[in-house]
Amino acid sequence: MTEFHDHTTYNCDSISFGLVKICLWILVGLIISFNVPKVYEKFSSQKHEIIQEAPCAQQTQLLQQSQSSSRSTGKWRKKMFIVFVLAGVVFSIWLFLYLREDIVLRRKETLGSMCDERARMLQDQFNVSMNHVHALALLVSTFHHGKQPSAIDQVDSYAYLPPNSKHSLNSDASATLVVFERRYAYLENHIVEQIVGSTDKQPLLETPGEVFELRKLLPTSLHYDFNIHIMDFQPGEFLNVKEVHYNQHGLLLLEGQGIYRLRDSWYPVQAGDTIWMAPFVPQWYAALGKTKSRYLLYKDVNRNPL
């Protein structure tokens, strides 16, 4: 948090310094714009005095020269103004690109240090190497970042990272990212692979006896020791059975609202709320309101819980 605060302070200082530069540039331009007409008027008045003091024969010649000079001076002033405006535009573009590149570099450094800190925290908490930790990241709000080699850049995108995966995260816009991390339970001769996908592109699965729509983000094969279910309920729809099983769940309500039952307690929930359900806790859900509700559900699978 301290590094992030320092990074934010640095970005603010850089932007403030850039704004000061732009203000100084504009101030110099205004000073020049105000002074050039004064110099020109002084020069013209001196010429006018010379014309009045000169003989008649010379007055005509000096008047013609003065008119010619005023026309050339007017053209010169227009050219100078155009050059000044173009220089200001070029300088502003350069300053913007310079500050943007510097901020991006600082963000990468901060993210790298935050990832290292996260790795150390996991090692201390679970006493495992990062090589044994895998994760699934699900994007739940607007997100933009670099597209290579793989990218999660849509609201419903997700990525599964197998153990021993090197990865980075870059963002140039605010986003909400849900990350599930756990120690991978290896099975002999079973290898998991990286997955990048879109929630709405996953097929709808059959739910015998139920009315909700179900999608699974990961394959159901034995290779994977957990899965993420995306469940959609139209207003008024509910689970037809009260579920009781050994699986533990982590739930995040993405859209809508409803009521969730855990054992003998009832909890009104809305988008953004989270629930953790221990094994063998009776659970039930009903969608309320006028819009559909969607939640994601973490579920440990394919491994003996004992």
TrEMBL record:
UniProt cross-references to InterPro entries, sorted A to Z: RmlC-like_jellyroll, RmlC_Cupin_sf, UGHY, UGlyAH_cupin_C
Protein name according to UniProt: (S)-ureidoglycine aminohydrolase
CDD domains listed in its UniProt record: cupin_UGlyAH_C (cd02212)
GO function terms (MF aspect): ureidoglycine aminohydrolase activity
Keyword Transmembrane helix: yes
Keywords: Membrane, Transmembrane, Transmembrane helix
Segments passing through the bilayer: 15-36, 80-99
